């Protein structure tokens, strides 16, 4: 038998932790993918690096992911106009 994790309202079911992990992974992958597609469309040479940074930041937490997205928009987003594929 396992000892349940204690949250502020009592024991946390393991199913809730699995759902939270899957949602976190989905947000991290979606954020990294969006940054990669945007950076490659704008002709950035470091598109993969920005995608890894943003995706990894979202894995650390929502606040870190938002800060990484802001950093991408301020620092990493090329000023070149979008290329159509």
- Major sheet: 2 strands, antiparallel
* Shape assignment: elongated
Portion of residues in beta strands equals 5-15%
- Listing every helix as H and every strand as E from the N terminus to the C terminus, the arrangement reads EEHHH
Strand order of the largest sheet: 1-2
Average pLDDT works out at 86
Secondary structure category? mainly alpha
- How far apart the termini lie comes to 56 Å
The Cα radius of gyration reads 17 Å
- Number of DSSP strands? 2
Which regions are unreliable across 5 or more consecutive residues at pLDDT < 50?
none
Count of discrete alpha- or pi-helical segments spanning 4 or more residues: 3
Task: Describe the fold and architecture.
This protein has helices at residues 14-41, 47-60, 62-76, and strands at 5-7, 10-12. With 85 residues, the protein is mainly α. Strands 1-2 form a two-stranded antiparallel ribbon. The chain is elongated.
Summary of the model, kept short:
With 85 residues, the protein is mainly α.
What's the structural blueprint in terms of helices and strands?
Blueprint: E1 5-7, E2 10-12, H1 14-41, H2 47-60, H3 62-76
Antiparallel strand pairs: 1-2
Helix pairs in contact: 1-2, 1-3, 2-3
């Amino acid at each position: 038998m396992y000892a349940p994790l204690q949250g502020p309202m009592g024991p946390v079911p393991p199913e809730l932790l699995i759902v939270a992990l899957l949602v976190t992974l989905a947000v991290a992958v979606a954020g990294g993918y969006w940054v990669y597609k945007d950076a490659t469309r704008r002709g950035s040479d470091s598109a993969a690096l920005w995608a890894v940074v943003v995706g990894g930041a979202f894995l650390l937490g929502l606040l870190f992911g938002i800060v990484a997205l802001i950093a991408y928009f301020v620092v990493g987003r090329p000023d070149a106009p979008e290329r159509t594929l």
